[in-house]
Amino acid sequence: MKQTTHPPDHPSAHVRNGAAIAAPPPAPARARRRPASEQWAAWAFLAPVTLYLALFYAYPLYRNLDLSLRDYTVRSFVQGNAPFTGIENYRTVLDDPTFAPALLHTVVFTGVCLLFQYAIGLALAVFFTQHFRLSATLRALFLVPWLLPLIVSASTWSWMLNSDSGIVNAALHAVGIGPVNWLTSPSWSLTSVIIANIWIGVPFNLVVLHSGLQSIPASLYEAAALDGANAWQRFWRITFPLLRPVSAITLLLGLIYTLKVFDIIWIMTKGGPADSSTTFATWSYQLGFGNLLPAFGPGAAVGNLLVVAALVFGLIYLKVQRKQALS
Amino acid sequence: MNRRTGRTWWKTALGLLLTALMLFPVYWMLNVSLTPARDMRKSPPDLFPAHGTLDGYRTVLDEQLPYLGTSLVIGLGTVVLTVALSAPAGYALAKLRPRGGGILNFVLLAAQMIPGIIMAMGFYAIYLQLGLLQSVPGLIVADSTLAVPFGVLIFTAFMSGIPGELLQAAKTDGAGALRTFWSVVLPMSRNAVVTVSLFAFLWSWSDFVFAGTLVNGGAHEPITLGIYHYIGNNNQEWNAIMATAVVASLPAAVILVLAQRYVAAGVTAGAVKD
């Protein structure tokens, strides 16, 4: 695990067991106690980042929690004397007619995106483990969607899915299917943002799963081939089971990062039309910044629900990862 | 060898086809950026920019240069801040065995999981009181939160690989921790510095959430907002919008061509994108 992020000039070595998603916690500090002077030196090096975490992570989070527990108006937001109202904002949010659709859309968006990103990523990863000319170059090109600024991807997809002049509807027309109002019809807007987000997420899955595949010994496949297993059986009996740890990590990370997708949806549909593509992330922003009269309190409350969800899956992720590191 | 290539040509062909399919939106962005305004609403749209125009790019030069400059400054500022914060931290976590280092590691991992909009709201509330809204340094600090946890992670993992004997030798020669870090560890970690810098730059260049909340409407806005305003104004000049998008994609393209190995290393090491 430790050598996983070794110098990038050894591309084959950088993910030994595939699950190199995050550095493991360092060996227990007590393993070899160092002299006090060294402890001072260590914390002197850590002081800037610790201060930074307190100021720029903990404090904004605290401010956000505070926002969600008070009745803020634009005026009290500036003056900072909003009355404490406890969980009132959370109650408002739960009773809001947008709550149920936002929850449903968040679940559908996250689930469908994950499923397709993983399936497509895995299929491509298996394909690219084979040796053929240009294999490495083409695999590198697959990274492009992941590297592009989200606003670039989102605006390109917006134009491609444009009802009247988009290439997608032109292609559908060519095969005899009538125009679809991808972004302006409530029944299609969620599908549209899901398609765009799958496109963006495939490269991450491809790269991580591909490096996971590298760690499956080729001898296993040779043995299976000698025993007469066909390609399909080799995939289901060898590749898939042995890739399970990497798959778990990839999916969990994907889950955490898909939950908080905001840019794509906001740029393409703003959560609309009529909240038909609203998720918790866009709803929170809509409440806080999207209206003329901002509702900072409820906005922060929705955001905090999202934080809790992300942290729950984050803890599961850490647990899975630790288990894998031990085994 | 010849027989082998003979048998795999169809795989290359399939690979080319899949890549073309995957990159079609990128091609389409290029194509639209070159399409003259009068053909923009043509049905069906032209598949090739046969009557291509550079009008869109001329508009970019006229209107978007300040945005691009701001993005460059913010990107470089984020890189400096991120490396300055995360390299020493990585060194301490990897080599100095601080008590409580495990907790710090955990906090850094958890920090990466906080959705960007939540951070943006918190920053907004704080900056409003401090009068830091619509300021470039404020946005640099906010953008750096995208990259600092990742940076610490990369530096820790990389510096763990530096042999302890080397540091011991420096110590024997009388070098203190600071000197060892500056003259031995940091020069040896060049690859990690490059990886972290690339991602810090790319993420701050691409940032839309912080820019949209913290500097929207200000004097200095990054390119992501430049594009967003174009779309928001119901602008129908899609060739200008797509030309801006092409220009905004250049850093990603340059990085992919020049530093692909660092990118792959970064992704597998836990690259996370908001």
TrEMBL record, chain A:
Residues 103-317 form the ABC transmembrane type-1 domain. The chain crosses the membrane at residues 40-59, 102-128, 140-160, 188-209, 242-268, 295-318. Residues 1-30 are annotated as: Disordered. The keyword Coiled coil does not apply. One of its GO terms (cellular component) is plasma membrane. GO terms for biological process: transmembrane transport. It comes from the Bacteria. Keywords: Cell membrane, Membrane, Transmembrane, Transmembrane helix, Transport. CDD domains: TM_PBP2. The keyword Kinase does not apply. It is found in: Cell membrane. Pfam families: BPD_transp_1. It is a multi-pass membrane protein. PANTHER family: BLR7065 PROTEIN, SPERMIDINE_PUTRESCINE TRANSPORT SYSTEM PERMEASE PROTEIN. Belongs to the binding-protein-dependent transport system permease family. This is ABC transporter permease. It comes from Streptomyces cahuitamycinicus.
From TrEMBL, chain B:
Keywords: Cell membrane, Membrane, Transmembrane, Transmembrane helix, Transport. It is found in: Cell membrane. The keyword Transmembrane applies. The keyword tRNA-binding does not apply. Belongs to the binding-protein-dependent transport system permease family. GO terms for biological process: transmembrane transport. One of its GO terms (cellular component) is plasma membrane. Residues 68-259 form the ABC transmembrane type-1 domain. It is a multi-pass membrane protein. This is ABC transporter permease. The chain crosses the membrane at residues 12-30, 67-94, 106-127, 139-159, 180-205, 238-259. Its main location: membrane.
